[in-house]
């Protein structure tokens, strides 16, 4: 009975979403993360985003596990459509996946700080989430306090170099959060 239930659940997940070509929009998107594929994917999952939440079973239906690592890598590499998708599905992530997303978003900032801020504002990301996205550091720096400090200073510098007045408030919050993190590393 357990095998039958697992098989049925897998079929349900596999058949839950398909795009106009009959393909899984997640497979299509992570295979070629473009604005067009981003629209296709969002059209397929937007109605189910409200079902997501910390520890909810729907999280894995809306954002299947198999596509998460590739999505996070694309975000870390500076792919804007992947970053926008990440911002929309953040509420469907929890635990380690949420941490992985936030670290990849921090790396997106390292590559494209202007676009990062633009998308944070456009997606109306809550302030606490924004601060977490900005302050999460790559796992490769876990035991490297000097590297952590260097990256934090780099992020402060990048924020300071953005001169558009529309980003003034969000920049100030970001710099303050990064300075707090820098102080906590000094203790």
Question: What would the keywords be for this entry?
Answer:
single chain; 187 residues; 0% strand; globular; disordered N terminus
Give a description of the structure.
- The protein has 187 residues and is mainly alpha-helical.
- 69% of the residues lie in helices and 0% in strands.
- It has helices at residues 2-16, 25-31, 35-45, 58-62, 68-76, 80-89, 95-111, 113-122, 127-135, 145-161, 168-186.
- It has one domain (9-186).
- Mean pLDDT is 89; it is low at 1-15 and 18-22.
Secondary structure layout:
Elements: H1 2-16, H2 25-31, H3 35-45, H4 58-62, H5 68-76, H6 80-89, H7 95-111, H8 113-122, H9 127-135, H10 145-161, H11 168-186
Summarize the structure.
The chain is mainly α and about 190 residues long. The protein contains eleven helices and no strands. The chain has one domain.
Tell me roughly what share of residues is in helical segments. 55-70%
Order of helices and strands: HHHHHHHHHHH
Shape: globular
- Which percent band covers the strand fraction? under 5%
Question: Which radius of gyration do the C-alpha atoms yield?
Answer: 18 Å
**What class, by secondary structure content?**
mainly alpha
Unreliable stretches (pLDDT < 50, length at least 5) are: 1-15, 18-22
Termini, distance in Å?
55 Å
Mean of pLDDT = 89
Provide the domain count: 1
How would you characterize the largest beta sheet? none
Count of helical regions? 11
Number of strands: 0
């Amino acid at each position: 009975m357990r095998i039958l239930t697992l098989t049925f659940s897998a079929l349900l997940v596999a058949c839950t979403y398909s795009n106009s070509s009959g393909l899984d929009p997640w497979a299509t998107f992570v295979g070629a993360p473009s604005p067009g594929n981003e629209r296709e994917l969002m059209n397929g999952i937007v109605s189910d985003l409200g079902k997501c939440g910390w520890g909810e079973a729907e999280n894995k239906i809306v954002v299947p596990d198999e596509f998460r690592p590739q999505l996070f890598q694309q975000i870390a590499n500076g792919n804007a459509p992947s970053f926008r998708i990440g911002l929309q599905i953040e509420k469907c992530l929890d635990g380690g996946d949420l941490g992985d997303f936030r670290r990849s978003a921090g790396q997106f900032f390292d590559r494209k700080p202007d676009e990062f801020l633009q998308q944070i504002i456009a997606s109306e990301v809550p302030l606490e989430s924004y601060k977490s996205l900005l302050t999460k550091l790559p796992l490769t720096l876990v035991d490297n306090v000097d590297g952590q400090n260097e990256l934090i200073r780099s992020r402060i510098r990048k924020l300071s170099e953005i001169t558009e007045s529309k980003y003034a408030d969000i920049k100030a919050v970001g710099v303050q959060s990064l300075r707090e993190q820098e102080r906590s590393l000094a203790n």
